[in-house]
Amino acid sequence: RTRPAALVVTHDRSFMEEVCDDLLEIDRGTMHYYPTSSYEEFLTLRQSRLDLEAEALQTAKQKLKKEQEWMRRQPQGRQTKQKARIKEFHVLGSSVAAAASRKAAAA
């Protein structure tokens, strides 16, 4: 047996806490689920998610910097590994740039 559901868009926090069981947030084109109706708990969970995203972005930036140094040295030999690593460098660069632009758009 399924439970009925309704999608409610509101800015009224007290109404939201009384009516809703769970919260969904659409942020920068991505939907995020929060298993709470408390606005305060939502803010805490959201900040945790944003902190994790920022940490992941920082880690990716550090790895990108390390890979840029490797690219500057232009190592020779083991061509197969070199090609794969260069491809990974370009993919990482694209993902870091996209994440940074999403973060800048949110600010």
Describe this structure in a few short sentences:
This protein is mostly helical.
Taking the sheet with the most strands, its summary is:
2 strands, antiparallel
Mean pLDDT: 85
Helix content: 55-70%
C-alpha Rg (nearest Å): 21 Å
Counting DSSP E segments of at least 2 residues, the number of strands comes to 2
Q: Looking at the structure, what is the overall shape?
A: elongated
- Tell me the fraction of residues in β-strands, as a range: 5-15%
- Helix/strand order: HEEHH
How far apart, in Å, are the first and last alpha carbons? 43 Å
Low-confidence region ranges: none
Number of domains: 1
Could you say which structural class the secondary elements and strand pairing correspond to? Answer: mainly alpha
Q: For the largest beta sheet, what order do the strands appear in spatially? A: 1-2
Number of distinct helices: 3
Structure description:
It is a single chain. The chain is mainly alpha-helical and 107 residues long. It has one domain. The protein is 65% helix and 9% strand. It contains 3 helices and 2 strands. The protein has a two-stranded antiparallel sheet. β1 and β2 form a beta hairpin. α2 runs antiparallel to α3. InterPro entries: ABC_tran_Xtn, ABCF_ATPase, P-loop_NTPase.
Give the tags:
single chain, 107 residues, mainly alpha, two-stranded antiparallel ribbon, 3 helices, 9% strand, ABC_tran_Xtn, ATP binding
Summarize the helices and strands and which ones pair or pack.
Blueprint: H1 13-19, E1 23-27, E2 30-34, H2 39-73, H3 79-106
Antiparallel strand pairs: 1-2
Helix pairs in contact: 2-3
